[in-house]
């Protein structure tokens, strides 16, 4: 059994991921992540989906013809991923930690870290996860690592209209400065311990394992800040406009930080 920090286990054990990527800002994140990965993945690749959650990306990848092995530490997510995989399973599901993967060296053409770096607050743990991803990736293969943007807490507070709350403002001021989630006793939401990356930090951490970083992308662009995005995402013209906006600033040094999430793409 993989040991998770209590706050992380409680948060994800409350089923917050069941449909997060199916609506609004989550749907924008999903579509853009798929779009970005699709630019780099070779056909019929062997893909390790590390921290793959409930299996939404694994399901998509399998449907695109890739051989996928999902790794996840959260018990509820493992159960949901098994259900999504079906019988016979369309992708493999494994319980493990991103820092100690149950695979041989060079076993995969592509390794995805679309969640583990969020909740590894200490730099040495994030570097360990990147090293493991690199180990199980073949020479010339792809490693893609996602992170939460340093400015996401600030922008989300503005989006929600809670910027006038003195406690919240104090918290996000510290989180924006230091990149680390404030201590549990100070938090005003259930979101657990996390690290928020600047683009240059993410590039440096991914590159620390000897990977050649090809680019760091802003995933959602500014569109996730749209009021009532859950409803407006269903309108085709709005959806296309939001995707255009994300593409327009995806590698702009002044625009990457508008995104809630970052994606580093690298080669071994």
Explain this structure.
The chain is α/β, with parallel strands linked by helices. Helices cover 40% and strands 19% of the residues. The chain has one domain (6-151, 194-267): Rossmann fold (3-Layer(aba) Sandwich), CATH 3.40.50. Strands 1, 2, 3, 4, 5, 6, 7 and 8 form an 8-stranded mixed sheet that branches. Strand 4 (108-113), helix 5 and strand 5 (137-149) form a beta-alpha-beta unit. The mean pLDDT is 96.
Short description:
This protein has 268 residues and is an alpha/beta fold. It has helices at 6-13, 24-40, 56-63, 75-85, 123-136, 152-160, 166-178, 199-207, 229-232, 236-248, and strands spanning 46-50, 67-72, 92-95, 108-113, 137-149, 196-197, 212-218, 261-267.
CATH class assignment: Alpha Beta
Number of domains: 1
Poorly predicted ranges: none
- Count of helical regions: 10
* Whole-number mean pLDDT: 96
Our estimate of the beta-strand percent is 15-25%
According to CATH, the homologous superfamily is Vaccinia Virus protein VP39
Q: What is the string of SSEs from the N terminus onward?
A: HHEHEHEEHEHHEHEHHE
> Structural class per helix/strand content?
alpha/beta
Largest sheet: 8 strands, mixed
What is the general shape?
A: globular
Quantity of strands, as a count: 8
- Under the CATH scheme, the architecture is 3-Layer(aba) Sandwich
Helix content: 25-40%
What is the radius of gyration?
18 Å
Task: Could you tell me the CATH topology label.
Answer: Rossmann fold
CA distance, first residue to last residue: 30 Å
